[in-house]
Prior knowledge:
Elements: E1 6-9, H1 13-24, E2 29-32, E3 44-45, E4 54-55, H2 62-66, E5 82-83, E6 89-93, E7 97-101, H3 105-110, H4 116-127, H5 130-137, H6 148-157, H7 161-165, H8 171-181, H9 194-206, E8 211-212, H10 217-229, E9 233-235, E10 251-254, H11 258-265, H12 271-279, E11 285-293, E12 309-312, H13 316-327, E13 337-340, E14 355-363, H14 372-382, E15 390-396, H15 398-404, H16 421-424, E16 441-443, H17 457-469, H18 490-493, H19 541-553, H20 565-575, H21 579-582, H22 587-604
Parallel strand pairs: 1-2, 1-10, 2-9, 10-16
Antiparallel strand pairs: 3-4, 5-8, 6-7, 11-14, 11-15, 12-13, 13-14
Amino acid sequence: xxxxxxxxVGSGPNGLSAAITMAQEGYSVLVLEANPELGGGMRxxxxxxxxxxxxxxxxxxxxxxxxxxLSKLALDAHGLQWIEPPIPVAHPLDGGRAVGVRxxxxxxxxxxxxxxxxxxxxxxxxxxxxxDLLGRFLRPLRLARYSVPxxxxxxxxxxxxxGLCRRxxxxxxxxxxxxxxxxxxxxxxxxxxxSAGLLLALLGHAVGWPFPRGGAKRIADAMASVLYSLGGxxxxxxxxxxxxxxxxxxxxxLDLTPAQILRISGDRLPAWYRSQLRAFRYGPGVSKIDLAxxxxxxxxxxxxxxxxxxxxxxxYAEIADAEARVWRGEHPERPFVLLAQNSLFDETRAxxxxxxxxxxxxxxNASTIDMSPRIEAQIxxxxxxxxxxxxxxxxxxxxxxxxxxxxxxxxxINGGAQTLWQMFARPAxxxxxxxxxxxxxxxxxxxxxxGGGVHGMCxxxxxxxxxxxxxxxxxxxxxxxxxxxxxxxxxHMHGAQAATSSxxxxxxxxxxxxxxxxxxxxxxxxxxxxxxxxxxDDGEDDVEHQLKTDSGAQQHGHRWxxxxxxxxxxxxxxxxxxxxxxxxxxxxxxxxADSSFASRVHSSISARDIEPNGGSRASR
Length: 620
């Protein structure tokens, strides 16, 4: 078997996305996965009792449906079926009450009483342009092009949840948004925790919070099927201990976090880059529990039985306190619990009449404290009699999560903390975050922009960087719709050894796009058109142009510390200081302040902020 032209290490959503992107351009691709089963966080197993199928990591997937890349792969033709519950997410409150995000902005707002108009003004205009917004922001921030809606989104998102919630009068509205923002895994008083809440609310109204029939593994299976149809290969059970272990390849893409990159690269990376990777900050971990029940959770409020996702944390104050304690290294008595009850809508998850529950809370990174009793107590608080229905339980602490997937360092499920600093320096402070100082080696994990979540954009954009470095042009058109290949050959799925070659092994090397193993197939689909009948702007040409510029700029050297990394950090961290106290003093003041703030967001990520003395756009 001949050596592959491209090697991808890791088969999570980003690794598979990178592999598919390269295979679409005609390159021979090999994916190496350390575990016996592919998928990274997209796996489903019988963790408690026979017949009860639990998602090991990810369970609810609005970003997968909305992803500018995954949504174009026609995964339904490869066996993937989405289930969309009647309500995207519910949030129970004391006294038998509950609030939730419904598909309609107006219906959601109507349930918030005095905050109806505020909610509708905040989300309504954004939902109308949600596809455009995701296309602009699911990428490195410096590549986001700015329209009026984009600036409006940025002004609200790049803030703390505490500041944004000052717009609301009622505890119900504040609690609802706090639950959404809790996905940021940050204290709610920290910037930019509001971004997660705003994005998830937006997705709830735009596409819902769906999940795959049969479990998260179905997403991995469908993506693998696409890759096989393009001629790609996957080898499971192949752990890469060193870059020296890899056969010669024209490009290597690493679906790994900084800890693993440091481990396999040894001293190949220059000291300045290793220093930045060592400084990369991982976020809190999670303590997870999977339950087998003899019936559905007996929620006090029926709204919680009409959704697959429930945020269990009570009031805004309780959630804010719990998340702040975790950030300080403490374990809250009343944790904020994120819960999925997929079996209410998917009969494949459990035997007839039985149910599965997936739940976790945040804990300090690498915590050894079992939070399952506290998680169960929180659920019982809003669903009396819940504990009586438990048939079996399976607990995973951060160490177990990391054992199952080494990218979950200390139980961090986001590939690193989504702090303001790491919105720009992810995984290191570089103009092109996907390229490493090693020729032909790229990072494609959730430790690169846009960060955690099953959306595949980290892998897709890293692959485009590799293609552009080859001297070719990454195509801006939608990916080819590959034909489904029924049943993947066993050699594609398993194997302890990768293809090897004699002679000295090397790391990467420049891609040669005109010498492919097989020609890239012609695209058969028509160009997407906009409402006016003109060719649609997919919002990718600017990405391609910038990444192409970046790829050439890498040749100028990589000595960031010589021109003021600290100055860059201070500028961006100082940009947002005091914003939340300034722009919510009144409606009129908030409007004008948001406009001013949006302008500063735009200017803050311009080239001059990271180019000392007017220098070229280079990582030095």
